[in-house]
């Protein structure tokens, strides 16, 4: 929970390249907003990297430790394969303000070190997949997507609700499984009985 709050705070900070500051000593009903450029660039770099790593489908399961000093990024932790290691390094190199990337990332196909279950990144990714499936259903004129409840957990979409026919149930299932990122679909839709 502590890591989630830290990531949320860092994410919020990263969204503002020039943060907003409230001016003091003003009448109660007046809020004056000014821009301040006093955020340490190392903090911004670290925030961007932690946020990116937590949302990346290849890296979000691993606890990659990021340290930044004077534009020099140091990465530490463990990943399961060389492409994941290269991805982490390349992401760091592409962040504006980074001068150098050093790393002590360990590649171990059996690693469980640093693995996080049900982390913030997975939750965000699942929510994104849910929104993508819902959007595809709502945009299909043959389906009333608003009557279908979609939830996603660990890249598996679950469909619930009632539909008028078996054909529509199957069509909705096909649309869900064809959504990029969805690895499986639990189609729990019920066909309404005709009276």
Summarize this entry quickly.
The protein is of the alpha/beta class and 195 residues long.
Which H/E pattern describes the elements? Answer: HEEHEEHEHEEHEE
Largest sheet: 4 strands, mixed
Helical amount: 25-40%
**Structural class by SSE content:** alpha/beta
What's the total number of strands? 9
User: Hey, roughly how much beta strand do the residues contain?
Assistant: 15-25%
Unreliable runs: 1-24, 31-38
Please work out how many helical segments DSSP would assign: 5
What number is the mean pLDDT? 79
- What radius of gyration results from the CA coordinates? 22 Å
Ends distance: 50 Å
* Outline type: elongated
What number of structural domains do the residues give? 2
Essential attributes:
2 domains, 195 residues, disordered N terminus, alpha/beta, elongated, four-stranded mixed β-sheet
Question: Please, could you describe this protein's structure?
Answer:
The chain has 5 helices and 9 strands, in the order H-E-E-H-E-E-H-E-H-E-E-H-E-E. Helix content is 37%, strand content 24%. The strands form 3 sheets. Strands 6, 7, 8 and 9 form a 4-stranded mixed beta sheet that branches. The protein has a 3-stranded mixed beta sheet with strand order 3-4-5, covered by helices on one side. It has 2 domains: 2-107, no CATH class; 120-191, Histidine-containing Protein, Chain: A, CATH 3.30.1340.30. It is an alpha/beta fold and 195 residues long. The radius of gyration is 22 Å and the shape is elongated.
């Amino acid at each position: 929970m502590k890591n989630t709050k830290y990531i949320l705070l860092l994410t919020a900070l990263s969204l503002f390249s020039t943060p907003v500051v409230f001016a003091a000593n003003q009448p109660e009903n007046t809020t004056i907003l000014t821009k301040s450029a006093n955020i340490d660039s190392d903090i911004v770099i670290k925030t961007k990297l932690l946020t990116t790593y937590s949302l990346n489908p290849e890296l979000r399961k691993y606890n990659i430790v990021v340290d930044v000093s004077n534009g020099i990024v140091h990465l530490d932790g463990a990943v399961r394969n060389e492409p994941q290691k290269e991805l982490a390094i390349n992401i760091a190199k592409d962040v504006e303000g980074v001068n150098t990337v050093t790393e002590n990332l360990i590649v171990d196909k059996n690693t469980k070190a640093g693995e996080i279950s049900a982390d913030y990144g997975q939750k965000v990714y699942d929510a994104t997949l849910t929104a993508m499936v819902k959007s595809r259903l709502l945009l299909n004129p043959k389906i009333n997507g608003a009557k279908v409840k979609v939830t996603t957990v660990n890249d598996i979409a679950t469909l619930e609700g009632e539909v008028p026919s078996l054909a529509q149930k199957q069509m909705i299932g096909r649309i869900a499984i064809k959504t990029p990122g969805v690895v499986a679909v639990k189609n729990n839709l019920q066909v309404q009985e005709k009276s």
